[in-house]
Design a protein that fits this description.
The chain is mainly alpha-helical and 189 residues long. 43% of the residues lie in helices and 4% in strands. It is globular, with a radius of gyration of 17 Å.
Length: 189
């Protein structure tokens, strides 16, 4: 795991429950313990955080910054990173999505979601719009995946088709949250 070419971002110690309603001391304890566990397991400090179920409190950004976390993925508000107003102004939001995300797409609100083919089409359609808009101003297009869903053979072929389509275009960078964070900091901080 230490040599894996991947980013490890914080979430929760057990994958259960969100940050709300948590008092500040309990939230600090959770964030600190998760950050420590990632560093112990990987030999690297985590740069990113995704709150369980996208829940966070008013204290979360400050607590993350105090723990050395550089970016938070809880916001689906934009296709650009942006800086938080925190005590040290050192935390940014890296875009996240619930639309191009296999869990809500496949399960839907009523437990019935889109087909595997439709999910691949959604990725391509999202890309086409952002690619056109990105001709004058770069865009981020998060694609949120979970291997137990999209890793299934009947679903994977449609994901592969979408990624091959995206990769066939010029001026496209397939990257990670850590890389987006680093780029934003070089450009704007």
């Amino acid at each position: 795991i230490n040599n894996a070419p991947a980013n490890f971002i914080g979430n929760a110690p057990d994958g259960k429950g969100g940050h709300t309603p948590l008092d500040e001391a309990k939230e600090q304890e959770i964030i600190s313990s998760v950050c420590k566990a990632i560093e112990e397991a990987t030999g690297r400090k985590t740069k990113g955080w995704l709150s369980p179920f996208l829940t966070h409190t008013d204290n979360t950004p400050r607590i993350l910054e105090e723990n050395g976390v550089e970016y938070l993925c809880d916001y689906t508000a934009d296709d650009h990173p942006f800086r938080f107003n925190t005590p040290n102004n050192n935390l940014i939001a890296v875009p996240y999505t619930v639309e191009i995300n296999d869990i809500p797409a496949f399960l839907g609100h009523s437990g019935v979601g889109v087909s595997s083919e439709a999910f691949g089409d959604m990725i391509v359609d999202q890309f086409d719009v952002l690619y056109e808009e990105g001709a004058t101003n770069a865009r981020c297009m998060p694609i949120c995946l979970h291997t137990f869903h999209v890793g299934q053979p009947n679903k994977f072929k449609h994901l592969k088709r979408a990624f091959e389509y995206i990769a066939s275009h010029d001026d496209v960078l397939l990257t990670t949250g850590d890389d987006i964070n680093d780029w934003y900091r070089e450009q704007y901080m």
